[in-house]
Amino acid sequence: MIAWWSWILTAVGVTGLYFAGRRRAVGWGIGLGAQILWVAYAVTTRQYGFLVSAFAYGWVYAKNFRSWRADSRKEASDAAA
Q: Is the sign of the CA dihedral 19, 23, 29, 34 positive or negative?
């Protein structure tokens, strides 16, 4: 089962990117959730390098979500004006 984890987690991550690219907030949530799964994978398989990537990707997902949300709010207020 562990051998399939990386493939499943890759599919989850790509799904998150797809929805984020379609401007859906759920995409960022999926991406952040995938990083939690990558941490579990890294610890279970003792491949600790994945911990660094999971935290880095998680930071980028969170930063981009905040930026995306701020841009969306600005666009909504500009459209209302």
A: positive
Say which DSSP state 62 is in.
H
Which alpha helices (DSSP H) does 1-81 contain, by range?
A: 2-21, 25-45, 49-80
| Per-residue pLDDT tens listing for the chain (81 residues) | 567 877 888 899 999 999 988 988 899 899 999 999 999 989 998 999 999 999 999 999 889 888 888 877 777 777 776
Distances (CA, A) of 36 to 31, 47, 51: 9, 14, 10
- Global pTM reads 0.75
Distance CA 62, CA 20 (A): 12
